[in-house]
Amino acid sequence: MGLKRVGRLGTTGALVTAALGASIVFTPSSASAASEWQCSGTQVKRCATVWWDEANDTYRARAKITDVAGGGSYQVAVTNVKLRRYDGDKWVTVRTSADSDGWHGTEDAAATTTIDPCVSKQSFDVVATFRWKGTSSGTKTWNPNMGWSLLCS
Prior knowledge:
Oligomer: single chain
Order of helices and strands: EEEEEEEEEEE
Shape: elongated
Number of strands: 11
Helix content: under 10%
């Protein structure tokens, strides 16, 4: 009886494919890698990650938006969170969460349902739509330009 999975890799950039035009760094992972958020923004922080449930060896896309203290005063919302896999040619959405629960005073978060990453043995990423209104308003569909892979046997 062998192990089904032997480890997880985080990748940034592009060994995934030269066509994506980014660079890749392979890093060994630990249980803490399951919760490493990739973030962007100063007054409104947008964060996303492919979350690894180590106990069940599953992935889900997670996204959150936060009104940062000391910045403007914003209401925030995150919607349309997608877990995507790279099929060797393009990113394909495999899970989606519309998360239409409205505006929030300081933070909103959303997540997709889980998937077994060893079924397709591909790289995964996350993309979400972030909205804010207050001192200024905006909408941005963003992903952290990072892929996640699980080594499967």
